[in-house]
Amino acid sequence: MGTDAVSGTRAMMPAALRRPLRLLAPLLALASLSGCGPGRDAFPPACPLARPLPEAAHLRRYRPGTHDAGGLMFDATMLSVAGKCRRVEDDRVVLARMRLRMQITRGAAAPAGPVEVPYFVSVTQGAHVLTKQIYQTPVTFPAGQDRVEVTTAPLDVRLPVTTHGGAAAYTIWVGFQLTPGEFSAEGGR
């Protein structure tokens, strides 16, 4: 009798059974290792859809009390949202890191220094708004330039991953923080 490759001991079973066990040995070894690794593939985690909210993707900010070309401080358009996701906290959270790109045009009533451009980042799941954060970015127009493109500093959004859905179950909306008067004026365009 020979030594069995599966157990490493002298085999006491018929040769017809030893061959299938030898073929199963590598599979059994792989199965025992499956719990040792991180348990995930090499693909990055799914990111939520991130986009400008159409109703808040444009802002015309006027000097208080005016709504004509002479009172326009700036005109802003949300151009894009770009980012990446990664898993954190033992894969229970997906961290979405993004930057917003916007174009700002100086108006006739622009102040001498920087203008503060208000924008928001909101997370929804279906029709429910889960969170909304408001930010401001100062925009300075270089001498001789009336239009600039601005990219925000990185913004981090933490999204819990549950058994009912991963990060792709959320939507991230970005836009300019409009006053009620600006919202109704923009909606009427």
What does this structure look like?
It contains 2 helices and 9 strands, in the order αβββββββββα. With 189 residues, it is mainly β. A hairpin with a 2-residue loop joins strand 5 and strand 6. The radius of gyration is 29 Å and the shape is elongated.
Features:
four-stranded mixed β-sheet, 9 strands, 2 helices, mainly beta, 189 residues
> Could you describe the largest sheet, including whether it forms a barrel?
5 strands, antiparallel
Q: Write down how many β-strands occur, each being a DSSP E stretch of 2 or more residues.
A: 9
Number of helices: 2
| Cα-atom radius of gyration | 29 Å
Q: How would you state the average pLDDT, rounded?
A: 79
Q: What does the overall shape look like? A: elongated
Oligomer: single chain
Structural class: mainly beta
How much of the sequence is in beta strands?
35-45%
Quick take:
Strands 2, 3, 4, 7 and 8 form a five-stranded antiparallel β-sheet that branches. A four-stranded mixed β-sheet has the order 1-9-5-6, with no helix packed on it. Mean pLDDT is 79; it is low at 1-13 and 20-39.
Task: Reconstruct the topology from this structure.
Elements: H1 15-33, E1 49-52, E2 58-62, E3 72-88, E4 93-106, E5 115-125, E6 128-139, E7 147-151, E8 155-160, E9 171-176, H2 180-187
